[in-house]
Specification:
alpha/beta; Quinone Oxidoreductase, Chain A, domain 1; Rossmann fold; seven-stranded mixed β-sheet; six-stranded parallel β-sheet; 12 helices; globular
Length: 367
């Protein structure tokens, strides 16, 4: 079948809308007509040559749409179902069997190679292979092939164009707080980076009862929105030392929890340095391959914890429906983070995201 996809060729920092061919679903695969798809920082990292093997490629990993066809053996969805696409895992390794699919021992192969486990791709152009299994979906396209393991059925009365970011960025930020850090009511949290992940974490912190929620960023518009969404304090780290400002806001104690959502090494250090004794820093920001950070060993020795968090420790088929219930109740207004773009505005969406104009770009496919 012929579809339209945003192809990355690797020759420049841009997406090119082109016609490509997509296969029919194989066993345990699901063909989804994409209604809309979020754009994530990871898409832009890979566009620019990081963390992926193989170009040309079709990226995108926050797809939402309608099931068109299913392959043999698929039982969890059927044609006509509304679905959100999320990350993929093998489902068989020791971590997957413990319900920790975001730490799948084969996570990179299922999400970053651009190919199925057997090395094939469902996309081609004039007989040439296009890498088309990014996060087992490649949703920067009018249609995408996913697997039965990374589609999440969602209610048909909610707007599909809004729901795609739940598959990665939103569940990563909210899950980092709710599932991973699990702060107790009355605790304090500092969030470094007020993008879609950081803002989702902020919304989650309010839900779980954090009473001191500090947003740190260099964009004043985002900091103003953070206050509207529930932050008790904001810090522009371009103007003041955020570690000192956080200590002032917490009577010199530091925060119980911090979340590093920028992927910038010196910000990571600040997120650890601002912790109270026995505090925990969660790391979700994607850094360049090989990036390193230095920490004060004595500070960590005093009972401070640092842990990486992938996809918010989420089990998507459980966590995404839970977030939708909170959204219906008005307690998780992640729609405040979204800005919409037509599919042919994909390069503008990417630019606006990189410049901090847009928090979460969502691309709407032509009807």
């Amino acid at each position: 079948m012929r579809i339209t996809a945003a192809v990355v060729h690797g020759t420049d920092r841009s997406f090119s809308l082109e016609e490509v061919d997509i296969e029919e679903p194989r066993a345990h695969e699901v063909l989804v007509r994409i209604v809309a798809t979020g754009m994530c920082h990871t898409d832009l990292v890979v566009r620019d040559g990081g963390r992926s093997s193989g170009l040309p490629a079709v990226l995108g990993h926050e797809g939402a749409g309608v099931v068109e066809h299913v392959g043999d053996g698929v039982t969890n969805v059927q044609p006509g179902d509304h679905v959100v696409l999320t990350f993929a895992s093998c489902g068989r390794c020791s971590n997957c069997l413990r319900g920790k699919g975001s730490y799948c021992l084969d996570l990179m192969a299922h999400n970053f190679t651009g190919a199925r486990p057997d090395g094939t791709s469902p996309l081609s152009q004039d007989g040439n292979v296009i890498c088309g299994v990014f996060f087992s979906q490649s949703s920067f396209a009018t249609y995408a092939l996913a697997t039965e393991g990374n589609v999440v059925k969602v209610p048909t009365d909610l707007p599909l164009e809004l729901l795609g970011p739940l598959g990665c960025g939103i569940q990563t930020g909210a899950g980092a707080v709710i599932n991973a850090l699990q702060p107790s009511p009355g605790s304090s949290l500092a969030i470094f980076g007020a993008g879609s992940i950081g803002m989702s974490a902020l919304l989650a912190a309010k839900i779980v009862g954090c009473t001191t929620i500090i947003a740190v960023d260099i964009n004043n518009d985002r900091l103003r929105l953070a206050i509207e969404l529930g932050a008790t304090h904001t810090i522009n780290s371009k103007r003041v030392d955020p570690v000192e400002a956080i200590r002032q806001a917490t009577c010199s104690m530091g925060v119980n929890y911090s979340l590093e959502a920028t992927g910038i090494p010196h910000v990571f250090r600040q997120a650890v340095d601002c912790l109270a004794v026995l505090g925990t820093c969660g790391v979700v920001g994607v850094a360049p391959v090989g990036a390193e950070v230095s920490l004060d060993i004595f500070s960590v020795l005093l009972g401070r914890f640092v842990r990486g968090i992938v996809q918010g420790d989420s089990v998507p088929n459980l966590f995404i429906p839970a977030l939708l219930k909170l959204y219906r109740q008005g307690r998780f207004p992640f729609d405040r983070l979204v800005s919409y773009y037509d599919f042919d505005e994909i390069n503008k969406a990417a630019m606006d995201s990189e410049m901090g104009i847009t928090i979460k770009p969502v691309l709407r496919m032509p009807v």
